[in-house]
Batch of 2 targets.
Target 1
Amino acid sequence: MSLSGELLAAGLLVVLAASCLLDRYLPRACLAFIAFALLMALAWWRLGAPWLALAEAVMGALLTGMALFHGLGRPGSRSPLPPRDHEGRPRHQAPVRWLAALIWLALAGMAVWGVPGSGEVAASAEVARRPLLVAGLAIMALGLWAFAHHHHLLRRLLAFNVLGSGVFLLLAGLAGPVVEVQGLILVGLMVALVGSVLGAALLRRLHALDGRVTLETGPETTP
Amino acid sequence: MSAPLDAPPSVEAVVLWLALLAPPLLGLAAWRLPPRRMLPVLLVGTPLPLATLWLLHRVSVGGGLEGAWSLAGLRLHWHLDGLAGLLLLLTQLLLLASAAYAVGHRRAAAVPERTFALFWPLLGGLAAALGLIWVAADLLTLYAALELMGLTAVGMMLLPGTGEALLAGMRYLLYALVGSLAWLLGVALLLGATGRLDLAGLAAASEPGAVTGIAMALLAAGLLLKAAIFPLHGWLVPVHASAWTPVSALHGALVVKASFFILMQLWQRLVPEAVAAAWLLGLLGSLAVLWGGLQACRASALKQVVAWSTVGQLGYLMLAFPLLAGTSAAVATLAWQATWLQLAGHALAKAAMFMAAGNLVLADGVSRLTDLAGACRQLPLALMTFGIAAVTLMGLPPSAGFTAKWLLLQAAILAGQWPWVVVLVVGTLLTATYVFRVFRCAFVEASPRHEVRPLPAGMDLVALLLALAALGLGLGAEWPLALLREEGMP
Amino acid sequence: MSDALLALAMPTALLWPLLLMLRVPLMAALADRGRPAALIDGLWCTAPLPALALALGVEEGALALDWWLFGGHWALDGTRNALLAVTALLWLLAGGYARGYLAGELDKAVAGDGGAEARLTRFALLWPLTLSGNLLLLVAEDIASFYLGFAVMTFAGYGLVVHSGTPDARTGGQAYLVMAVLGEGLILAGLLWGAGSAGTTTLGGLREGMGEAPGGAWMGLLLWLGFGVKAGVVGLHLWLPLAHPVAPTPASAVLSGAMIKAGLFGWLATLPLGEPAATEAFTWLGRAMLVAGLAAAIGAALYGVCQRHPKAVLAYSSVSQMGMITALVAMGLVAPALWPALSMAVVLFAAHHGLTKGALFLGVGIGEHPPRLPGWLLWTLLALPALSLTGALASGLAAKWAFKTVLYDGGYKVVVTWLSLAAVGTTALMARTLWCQWQADRQARQDGLEPLLSPMPLAWLATLLAALTLPWWLGDELVDQGWPPLAELPGLLWPLALGLAGSVATWGVARWRPLRVTRRLPPGDLWWLLVGGWQRLRVWAQGSLDRLGSVQGAWVAWWVARERDAIEALDGMTRGEGWLRRHAAVLMMGVAAGLALLMLFGTAGIGPA
Amino acid sequence: MSGALLLLATLGTSLVAAVVIFLLPERAFRARTGINLGAALVKLSLVAWMVWGLSHGREYVIEFPVLEGLAFVLRADDLGIMFAGLSSLLWLLTTIYAIGYLEDSPNRKRFFGFFGLCVASTLGISLAGNLFTFLVFYELLTLSTYPLVVHRGTSKALAAGKVYLRFTLTAGMGLMVGMVILHVLAGDIRFGEREILAELGPERRPLLVGLFWVLIAGFGVKAALVPLHGWLPRAMVAPAPVSALLHAVAVVKAGAFGIVRLVYDVYGIELSAELGLLYGLVVVASVTILFGSLRALAQQELKPRLAYSTVSQVSYIVLGIGLFGPLGTIAALSHLLHQGLMKITLFFCAGNYAEELGIHRIDELDGAGRRMPLTSLAFTVGALGMIGLPPVVGFLSKWYLGTGAIQAGMPWVIIVLVASSLLNAAYFLPVLGRLWFRPGPDHGVGAWPEERRLGRLETHGWLLVPAVATALFSLMAGMLAGMPFSPLEWATRVVNAEYLP
């Protein structure tokens, strides 16, 4: 595995994550997420965790993707979600969210730079994993920001999934693909899947009940 | 978990795992054959707390039990000390009570049997998750159990299927997931730093420093979100207000506390000396007490009052952090006992209170406080239960809340940390304010009578028993506390 | 008398009236509705009889009751015997008199007047109760019993004063009660203080302890004034002229004859009279008492002659006479050496005044309802006690002679002179009384006479007799001065002559030109000033209370407004909850950041470790 | 029966009665009455048994640990049993009264249940052996009286209940904090272990003084010391038996009893005197006495007047405590009982007037003596006792207070006593005057506000008997004060045995 390949993969992951999170056109965002998950599976494969790659491909990409599209609703089905997110947020709060995400990023970064060298992690692997670490940090921060920023429930689900993937990347990047990490990520993947399925189903129900796509209630929703 | 064992398991271990794994199986069985009466539920469930009692006895005689599983190269650790055993016992009792209550609730609220059948496997899953959390001794098991608990809890919250419940459940789901990711991030950092997942090894391998600190901060934030500590409590109240009564009871009593338990375990092992951060947690707890109390005073629906009271009461638990961080052994011992006694007392009382409130709402058919007028005449038992539970929440004698508050005060005064004394006093008065607000509404005599739906007697009885247990724990606190003291702190 | 017998006799004497009192509601309950029982019958009249027998039959004796209050201690001795005898006799005779006096009420009650029936029942109940209080205080040697007797007598006596229920009676009763409560307070203060410093529970111990205690004179002052309310010390006598005219005549008689003497007995029992060891301050107290006594003796006479109601005149005469007694008691403090002899004179004087005043009061009733006696006989009989009171006859003469000799021997001529001047006043008062009665009698004779054999005239005659013959039956040691030699008579009788002359002169002047002064001097003198002052005080206090109330109201309103504001602010705050709910994710990041910062930089510790 | 068992049985009697009453249906009038009276009688005899045992030197203790270094202690000592005797005697009478009073009114089950709890707490207070146990029952008392105060469920009653809770719960918190500080400072102090605090170093003295006042404030709310008395007159909206119990035995007495325990059994009278705490107590008590009397004078209704009178009278107990000396102590302890007897009489009578004739205001009382002679007689006895006239018990208290004040070198207290007596006379005598000497409806003047004719006697027998009985008790306890087992004798015994400095 070359460093440049890693860098490319990492960069691609970040770009996909960003496009998934920033796109207001929801089907496209979902598609971006599936691509992102597939890339993740590739990353696992290359890290030497084939089972994890398989799990990611099946659960992260396939099943979660299905769940997301179910949440979106097929155009022909009963009361599909509008494909575009029209929810806006007041501008003046944006800096706070950015700041919070950046601080979070900084904290995680500080911790990450403090971690290597202290434990049993092999030095050779370390270098190769560094881009992954950076990508993981960036994806995590992006995901967190998006989770705080978006109102639309589907986008929040996406943000949560991206955030989770970021954390998994960090986990693997920090401790290597050891069995503990694989266990944690596996559990995390399962949880994410169940959460996404549940979330998507709930979104459908909520939308069917009173047409809402956000959690906001009452007059404060869209100032 | 059908993994090869390291050594032939001891009888205790077998009993423990049976007790842990029986509920999901029972839950699945109940899914297929939903129970229609309380008695079978009680009969089937009673062996579990008895087994735990026996285990506690063994623990008190021979010290804590521990062990490990090997699973595909992973070593998963568990241990059962006095604290875990007591919490397990508490969990089983509460689960049993809410299971029994749920049978009556289904009948009284006329929930379709098919809808309700889903409750049972979820309950079993929740029971297993909680049990695992108490006995888990490594982060992976903890993570898995935490997630299992969160998802089953969300599932149970969604069961009523109303718009409110779905909305609140959705919010809960999102925040619970994000909270666990924050926790996972912290775990990742810890794992990276030490390469260990088992708590004992982690405590031994970690050294205080920036990495541990940041990891704990991230992890704590996630857990605080899941534990609904101010200001991250926003999801709690809508969830409680819209869920079925046995579910709210379990959730308020146990689920939020599991997160607190994990946080406490890690904090004590990894950053016991982080005084300033502990004070921040104490401060958050204080704010929770105030905020929860004030909100409860202004809430207009009965279940909301109870839910807000949970927010406030959880704040007391947070006071443990500053009292344990960097204080003398005497203070720490006091605070340690106080915290778990408060947790247990609150769990019992809160469950009882939710059930009593549920009974009031269900029987009266109203949910607003002002509509409660005349309830004292028509539903004296439910109101009485509410009152007894409230005694514990207010921390008035002879309840567990009182004894816990006495210990907390003693610890705070001994440590010279006077702000917490003020918080305790103000919190008590706020609690009294909202509790007696309910009574003031219920005692009004001049009111139009409305029809009262008769409830199964067992529903009142279960709630009353729980409330009385919380009351009795006040003066009978010596036995559990002695177990705790013997065990010492991690 | 043996102790055992005494132990039986003394409680009997005290309980008998109470038993008779308890009989009243029983009788009332047993009587048919609408046919009230004759509550005041012969048996009822015998209430003081055991006490009288006790007083006359027992020389000395004491009885200890451990279970009673703080330990009861009842005793009989010379002074007590004399006063007890006179008191019991007067109550007995007045009780008999009351049978006749209240016959009219009974008739009304039988005729169906509920009010009359209630009044009658009340009288029948309270008369023996007052009596038992009066008796108890005379035999009590422990402070608690004494105070009990005094209080019972005082408060039960209120019922006798307001018997008729008219507005005048209400006023009189009010004056009586207000002054009595004031007196009780002063007595309680004095007793507590004295007994507390002496550490005793008996009157004897109190007397001895007080003489030497620091501040003893102040205790003495409290007790003097406290008992002085009852004894009509000047300034505290206000209730006498108001209560006497309105009370039923037999009640007036015992009020003035017996109950006033309770005040005197209080002084004798508590003040360290004749104690040579008493501190210097007591001498000053004695001087103050002396001045007050003489002022009362003369001032009351001057004011009294301007009264129009015979009972009011008699009440002022009581004030005047008690002033003289006060002056004599004061000599016990000023000149302790004289006291052994003087005390006899004081008791004699008190006994004489008690019975004689009783006779006079009963005589007022006789004047209003004259019996079938020839006019000259009736008027002689009415004049006899008057003359006796001025010191010209019988017991009066003996009493006057008794103290005069003692004072002369002690060298206090000035005091004697002042007392003689007071006697002039007494003469004038008596003349005025008889004049007023004459007026009433003329009116009454037109309305018709009543038979002699009714209880009223008989009781009156018996009282008269007892009063006049007092020195012969009361006890030898009290009259050891004997009778004055003829040569001393002019010295004793000139006040009478002077008083008579003055009265006749005034009468003459008044016939020529009517004196208006009587209109402007109402009975009760200072009381009306006090009432006026009290009214003004009340108006002022009401005003300030109202102001205070409005201030408090504003204060409360302010707090209520603040509470409302606080609740509004709270509601505003609770709306912040929505914000918290929406921003939980950001808040989680914030919390994590805060925790991490504190972990990294705050390890030194903000909080006290 | 062993000592511990006897204690538990005594405490349990009313507790069990309360629980059983809660379990009985509302209609079960006879069963409830039977249980009530039976339990009251059993308890009274158990307490009498303990009194007998104590006077023969028996010990009654039971304890178990609640926390490390903190025990739940029940112990019957002379002082405690005195209060227990009072509460069980008056419970019996009040129960009788309440049965008559609440006839045909709703929520009787709730009433009697909490009534039993209230008495159980009072008994617990009297038998508590340390501050922790005391606090447990003290707070329990607050809780169990609340439903009684708001029993009528009117908005006025609910408001009064709110005020009541505000005062008592805040005070309870203050008390708890103070007790915890004391616990931290000196460990678990059993009542009677006076040396623990006395032996603390001089540097602890200021803290002890501060703590003392915190605890006094905590007790003072229930004892209605000015300015913490605000709840008491408002609590008058409660039914008459509740007022009677509140004023005579349970709540105000609990506060006063707490002060007694604090001064005599925790700090010790000598330490309190050394720290200069007693003088402050005397001043507070004097102010309360006079203030209460003055306020009572201004009331136009009977029950508020009695309420303010309570404010004034309960402070006699505090005053007696403050007078460092045996006589003052005797006064304090005996007044604990005396005031209970007299005040409960007055409240019973006030309740009788209200029930039978609908009388609430004082000026409606004209001539009531003729209509209700026995009630009025009982009222007269109580009122005269309050004024401090012999032979009613009030005189004894006043006497010992006065002489105690002289002994303590505070003669000015006598002025307070006399002024209070005069004020008492000023607000009670007009009432008596109206009762007996004014013509009223029975003399053909006017009409009663709401006459009900509850029984063949002047009113319902259940209402009449307790009032007359307590009046008799207060009369007899005064007249026979020298007899053994009279309140005064017992107080003297307590003082001689334990508190003589």
Target 2
Amino acid sequence: MMQNLPIPFLVLSFLTILSALYVVTSKNPVHSVLALIFTFFTISAHYVLLNAQFLAIVNLIVYAGAIMVLFLFVLMLLNLSKETEPVKSNWWGISAAITAGCLLLIITAAFQVSGEAVAKNPVEGIGLVKALGKVLFTRFVVPFELTGILFLASMVGAVLLGKREKGNDALISKEELNG
Amino acid sequence: MLTLMIFLPLLGFVLNGTLGKFLPKAISGWLGTAAVFGSFVIALMSFMDLTGDTTMPERIYTKLFTFLHVGNFHVDFAFQFDRLSAVMTLIITGIGTLIHMYSIAYMHEDDGFYKFFAYLNLFIFNMLVLVLGSNYLMLFFGWEGVGLCSYLLIGFWYKNVDFGKAARKAFIMNRIGDLGLLMGLFLIYDTYGTFEYQDVFKLVFAGSAESNAVNTAIALLLFIGAMGKSAQIPLYTWLPDAMAGPTPVSALIHAATMVTAGIYLVIRSEAIYALSPIAREVVMWIGLATSIMAALIGLKQNDIKKVLAYSTVSQLGLMFIALGCGAYTAALFHVITHAFFKALLFLGSGSVIHGMHHEQDIRQMGGLRKKMPITYLTFLIGTLAITGFPFLSGFFSKDEILMSAFAHNPLVFGLALVSAGITGFYMFRMFFVTFHGTYRNTHHGYDKVHESPLLMTLPLLVLAVLSVIGGAVNLPQYLGESISGGLHHLLSYDGGGQFSPILMYPEHAIELSHTAEIGLLVMAVSVFVIAFLYTRNKYVTQGAVPESDEAQAGMGKVLANKFYVDEAYDTAFVSPIEAAGDVVGNYVDDKGVKGFVDGFGSGSNFISRLLSKIQNGNIEYYLVYMVIGVALLLAFNLF
Amino acid sequence: MEVIIIPILASIAVMALGKKNQIWMSALLSMLPLIFIAQFFNHVGVDGGWKTLFDQPWISDNIRFTTGFDGLTGILLLLTNILVPVIILGGIRNDENRVKITALTLFMQGALNGVFMAQDGLMFYIFWELALIPIYFITLTMSGENAFKITLRFFIYTFVGSLAMLASLIYLFLHTANYSFAFEALRAVELSHTESIFVGGGILLAFLVKIPVLPFHSWQADTYTNTPAAGTMLLSGIMLKMGLYGLLRWFLPLAPESIEFYQPWVIGLSVAGVLYGALIAIRQKDMKRLVAFSSLSHVGLIAAGIFTLTLEGLEGSVIQLFVHGINVVGLFLVIELIERSTGTRMLGELGGLAKNNRLFMIFFMLIALGTVAVPFTNGFPGELLLLKSLYAYRPNLSLLAGLTIIFCAVYVFRMVQFSMFGEGKGEVASLKWNEILAFGIITFFILGLGFMPQILIDIVHNSIVQIGQWVSEARGVMS
Amino acid sequence: MSILNIFSQVEISHYIYLSTVLFCIGLFGVLFRRNAIILLMCIELMLNAVNLLFTAFSSYMGDSDGQIFVFFIMVVAAAEAAVGLAILVLVYRNTRSTDVSFLDQLKG
């Protein structure tokens, strides 16, 4: 059934998975970030394929643009670009792989058992700004406003957390932290 | 009147118990005596009423109140004064009065003087409840009550630990019997639906032959009670130990009255026993075994009171033989005469002990007859009466028992005769060693030995007279039809057919020819003569003194150690129960049950400690668990 | 209502007065409810069922504050309100904890009165638990090394039982016609056999733990030993009776269908407990432990009597629970006074106490006789009826249980012997007026009920007959 | 009109598989890595897998609600990233490390 799939979809999917794997396995956090950005790009491409043009753009702007830059920024700030992460033991990796694999297996199995063909009913233009905007500002206006409040709250929170308090400068050692 | 008769001693108890401390000893003592004497007078009057007038009903009945009434279960607090109760009451209050009087002198130095009289009065009260109660439960009341008083009085000198032990032993052995009695009562109630004597006996009388198995069971259970109270094998070991109490107590409780309660119970339940030959057979053989065994042990005892105690056990055994043979009158007759002469002997021994400054070992005595003439004389009469000297009271009563035994089974007669013969040996042995020979005590000089005061010798004289003439109560037929069998007539009197007599079943007429009768008499008398001559020769002519317990050998040692029954009971019952108590308390309960329960606690503690390992604070682990959980959830939904 | 509120108010008052409070004051306060109880007896009477005295919506319209009165309730109210003054008069030591313990005792009195009067399932449960709280704090005033552990065990033990009961009550509640916890409504629920075994089992568990019947007793001895005398007396004298009362009042009427199933088990365990407790008691050296195990033995007989379901058994059990309350409090009072004077309650270290204090000796002897169930003392009629009822159930069980009359004599007289008789080792301080009064009350009941047990039976007869009817109806339906 | 008429050639199941795989890769990362930043990134990856699925369903069924949801998820993700990173900075300041296995104060 693979053969019947269109080439662009296959390629895109392949790239997506590959880069996602790199995100997870790369020892260098900066590489991870870059790989993740690449993944987001490929996902955006998927969105385009799926006729969700607005989301594709937003994905690029918000994720690849804003959030990932934030990550990079923090990495730089904390100077974590080097491979500082202590390597976990092998069995931990194996068990994590098994766990994740199990979940994968179960989800696919679940889908195989219960999956029904979803009626294909594509509608032209729902992914466009105009169409989405209409829905967003009519039916979903209250959640939309709430999202604004959420943002405000998270912004305040982030600022508050990031602020250096007086007398809190001294580094607390791990021992002290553990009490 | 009946109520007053019963409650006078209780009043005495209450007065002495509460105010006794503030009363002078004389008043307190005479108060107790007067209470019992009052009862005696009333009892005598009532007895006259009952027997003098042919129009009198079979009993005087008083119901005080309903004791318990639950559904079908109904028990009245009621008393009846019938012919059997009357005889018992007269013995109890009559001898009780004499012993009270005696105690005034005997106990005059004791700190607990008023307490002693309070207890004695309480005992008389309980004994009266026992014999005057109109139903089995009232009997049980008195039954337990006298056991309690016996406990209190045996342990009267409470500072002595051994006395306390003896008291507890008596109470507990009695309780074992009581349990049997109680079960018997339940069975009676189960079968006949009532505790009232009259109703029960009517039903028994009307009962079918099938009920005989039940009757046998009832009879045997009641007999277990009687075993405890009347000191029969296997529950007899408490009585010798009970001699720890003051001597008047031994005379009153452990010779004359309480121990005969078992006999009373069987006579009272004659209707039931008459229907179960098996039970009677058991009663007879146990009585026989007890009688011989106790008599044998009595041969080697050196404590004056212990000898008398074993003698009592032996005599009680004789009474049970009579009961087993169906000779209820003979048993009651022996109860009466035994009460006279055994009380006399105990009081006499008390007088000796008093005169000897609380020395009880006969080996320390000797030659007392010159110092204590009255005691000597009365003691002699008592000894002659118990050993069956012709025409004294014991002679008649014992012979009646022997004859009924002969009529029942010659083998039993032979064995009973042996037992009666041994009586002669140990009694004369004690008598001669105590009063004849030379004085042997080294602590107290011979000159310090003194005769007891009048207050003590007076009861002795009265009892001596009674011991001599007591046989008149129920003279045998060969002495003349008109004067014989008074007690027998009393108990089988039916008011000219108006009511059922105490003894519902006419006794087996003793079908003996006069030759046989006289032959038996000769045998009995010759046994007496042999015993007298042998002991006189050994202890008076040769002047022998019983050897000390350590010097005993062979059979003598076994006898001196009372067949090791106490030790056997210790190993067979006391130690196992104590060990079981220890094991159950320390292991089963502490380690087992509590351990099991605590196991839940420590188990959940252990599990929670295991589970808290999982909660190690590391988020990664939590994540893994979460993922596993999600996977499991999905998987469950899936399959 | 008043009898619940007054003691609780009194308890607050005692707390507020603090050290200024005298014994006679708190004793008087604790006797106040007796006036009302007398009124109940006069005006409400013991005939004609469990009459409601007070009824108000409480937590909701269907969970009400309902108090009722009948003979059975009356007996237990009497027991509680007679014993609490006795405890306050004699059982509380004059030390820094006196005020606290007095207040807690009074509080307990209120809670217990609530338990015995409650006509609403949830109210019963709440007061049942409320009664647990004072005892917990009283026990905690002891600073023994294991005090906390033992208290915890006791608490968890009874709590598990109580929760099982709560679950059962809620199950019944959900099946009532209009969601009500009222006794009558709960009783009206028809259960299938299986259901009733579970529901009945839950209720039964709570009571069996409290009584306690054999395998559930391991909290008892330790808690008794490690509690101040007042706590021990409350526990043994009244709290245990909650379990027996519960059996009669709640278990039998609410789950009669399950009785058939539980009867042999409970009787078997109870009779086993009778012997088990007696055997252990024979070998105890600590007087408190001795009495604790003797208590196990005695209440076992009562529980067995209840489950014979005969009139003799049921009424005998009521007599005996009253009497056992009186006697066991008397015994603990004796032990407490001995310990107060000599500083020990180990039998080996005592002796000859009778010499110096004749009055104390008389009281002790009377209480001991009552415990041994000698005729003319209060222990006898109840024991007679119980053994009789057991006899009707199984004669051989009655014989086994009857062994207790022997064992009981053994251990009680052993206790008397080693503490009072023999050579003197110390003495008991002469009794003060309050102690004499406390003993006086106890002896009054020992002798009075010894002669006239019928009084108690007359009070309780109607209630028991009614319970018996319910049970036999349900059993009729079952078979 | 999209570049490709994807709907006729690709079943929705393929998108499901794809996003599942992506999700599990993210999950694996979360389990495997100890660096808090990578952890956050993996979470973003998981979120994106979900987003992809939402969008796929939305497009296949012609209902824009799914896309609105994706929009909201993005919002939440952004907020989460902001706060998460702020916390991370704070932790780093205190412990000089972003290793999550140091943070075991939740121990039971």
